[in-house]
Amino acid sequence: MEYKKPPVDPDLVKFTEKNDYDALAKYLVGNNYRYRDNIIIPRILGPVVIKTNEEKMIEAAVESCPFKSITSCIIGYGLGAAVGLFTSSLMPNVTDPMAQQNQTAREILREMKGSMLSYAKNFAILGAVFSGVECCIESARGKSDWKNGTYAGGVTGGLIGLRGGLKAGLFGAAGFAAFSTVIDYYMHQRGS
């Protein structure tokens, strides 16, 4: 049995003469204008909601390092004021033991205000520095794990301890890093 060549299709001859192979390849492989009528989004719980651009912008702003740092500063200020109020009520400050033992309410309130403002300022600075440093470290590393808190604690403790000298800075860095590591470990164990 002898093999015969099939007849050539006249449309195919016209197609090859016009060099439409490029157009066919672009259509089959690289068509970027293909519209999808039904997008499939996996559901976890509840209805599927696609975020608008405004929601994405607000979410990006809330997750930014400056916002986290400012928020920690405000929360630290409030927590510090509460701690200052508590500690000033436990130990009143009597400066002169020979003076009259009865303090006026105005003096007590003035001492409470000074204690509250001192604690509030210190906690605000501590919260802002720690949160900002941790966020920057997390952004630089590209990971969210216990090491970020440890490194941030070391940097924050070192910066705060440097006011007392190099030795105090080193002890502050080591102590705050250890404290941050323990807190991170406790929070992760409790959450899982």
From TrEMBL:
Topology within the bilayer: Multi-pass membrane protein
Subcellular location: Mitochondrion inner membrane
InterPro entries assigned to the protein according to its UniProt record, in alphabetical order: TIM22
Keyword Aminoacyl-tRNA synthetase: no
Assigned protein family: Belongs to the Tim17/Tim22/Tim23 family.
Function: Essential core component of the TIM22 complex, a complex that mediates the import and insertion of multi-pass transmembrane proteins into the mitochondrial inner membrane. In the TIM22 complex, it constitutes the voltage-activated and signal-gated channel. Forms a twin-pore translocase that uses the membrane potential as external driving force in 2 voltage-dependent steps.
Protein name in the entry: Mitochondrial import inner membrane translocase subunit TIM22
